[in-house]
Amino acid sequence: MKKLFLLFIFLSSFPFSAIDECKTDVYFGNGILTKQQIAIRNAGILRKAIKQRLGIDYYNQSIGKVDYAYNRSNGTIKLRVW
């Protein structure tokens, strides 16, 4: 039982060893009716803009990752008027 418990502790803490809390992760949040491919492309544009504006050295030292947080939308909200 002790071996199983120690194995669980080792495995549960292993994924967190790669997280660098000193770096900032940046996510692009899409707007209404944005396709997922466009959101991916916009995240890439954001990544390039950060590198250009802040410099590659700062980017490598301070930015963890630049990714997209996609939220699918199906159009406008339809309101029912009585």
What's this model, at a glance?
This protein is an alpha+beta fold. The protein has helices spanning 2-13, 36-54, 56-62, and strands spanning 24-29, 63-69.
SSE order and pairing:
Blueprint: H1 2-13, E1 24-29, H2 36-54, H3 56-62, E2 63-69
Parallel strand pairs: 1-2
Helix pairs in contact: 2-3
Describe this structure as you would to a colleague.
The protein has 82 residues and is of the alpha+beta class. The chain has a domain of 47 residues. Helices cover 46% and strands 16% of the residues. The protein is built from three helices and two strands. Strands 1-2 form a two-stranded parallel sheet. The longest helix has 19 residues.
Describe the strand arrangement of the main beta sheet, using strand numbers. 1-2
What structural category characterises the helix and strand content? alpha+beta
Oligomer: single chain
**Largest sheet entry:** 2 strands, parallel
Radius of gyration: 20 Å
Mean pLDDT: 77
End-to-end separation in angstroms reads 65 Å
Q: What is the overall silhouette?
A: elongated
Strand residue content: 15-25%
Strands, total number: 2
The arrangement of helices and strands along the chain is HEHHE
Number of helices: 3
Notable characteristics:
3 helices, alpha+beta, 82 residues, two-stranded parallel ribbon, elongated
